[in-house]
Fold these 2 entries.
Entry 1:
Amino acid sequence: MSEDTVAAAGPAGETEEQVLPRSAEETPEGTEISDMDIVFDCPYCGHNLAIDYRGAGLQVMCVQCGEAVSVPIPEDMHIDDLDVEPGEILKQLFKTRRMLRDAENRIVELEEALDAANARALESEAAMEATYPVRAEIANLADQAVIALRRIADLTAPPAPAAGADSAAAE
Ligand SMILES: [Zn+2]
């Protein structure tokens, strides 16, 4: 088997270079996690995933369960840390806005579904359990929306904040 066969069977159309997640769990070859990786758990199946830091805030597919999950942005990371072209930032911004809008629309749909399910849940325990995945998805989408908002804030922030002392004006 050749070593350079990367599973690149992406969805049709999306041909731009993608940062892909990988399993961060023990494999026969061992795990390769670097300082540049973001390590997080899939909110759906709990699988431990790792992705290059450039994947922060992006939506990726879990290698284990195939669900779309958003990569968390580390607290101490800013878009400035990524050396990206202004054009790339703009592209990311549009992508992020679209992702946010999709997440918001989906949350509205899910909340309606949840309302209906809750109404039925009064009648049976099984129906109650059926609401768990919906709740999980809403929670995940809410996380994504927050990530998207933070990313938009980051992307639209002035590029080089002057290290001034204007925080003294707060008092
Ligand atoms: Zn998963």
Entry 2:
Amino acid sequence: MEYNVIQLDNSYSVGIESIDEQHKQLISMCNNLYLNCYKKDEISQDFFRQGISSLISFMRYHLFVEEQLLSRIAFPEFHDHKEEHSNVIEFINRYLVYLGTDEEEQLKKSIPTIRDCILKHITVSDRKYANYIHTMNRYAPWHMKDSYLPTELFLG
Ligand SMILES: [Fe+2]
Ligand SMILES: [Fe+2]
């Protein structure tokens, strides 16, 4: 499968710095997995397993953080978005079953597909709440702007 290494640029910003950083980090983790574990003939199994586990953990963490945010800002399509997150995880899990088995090569080959699934979520689905944040920031009464929609995310 063809893989073009891409970096997320600021045109995909959702307007919250830490989320943007997480998106960039996710894509960069996929790139690293592809370049270091798939393209090279000599690959360390442990290195690959560690890389894919870190990607999945970080992805789960990211989705959790995003859901906290969407709930906090009362995003009208919160439940749909949450369902899309479940679908992304379910999609990735289809390939994760190969981890640690004789067919691990299948998982390695799926890195471009996994990256595209994550990328699509960021560039299509996450745009919806990004637009919501943008619109709300634009029309929120001036005295509510700071408390209403944060430009940085503080959980807890
Ligand atoms: Fe996201
Ligand atoms: Fe999302």
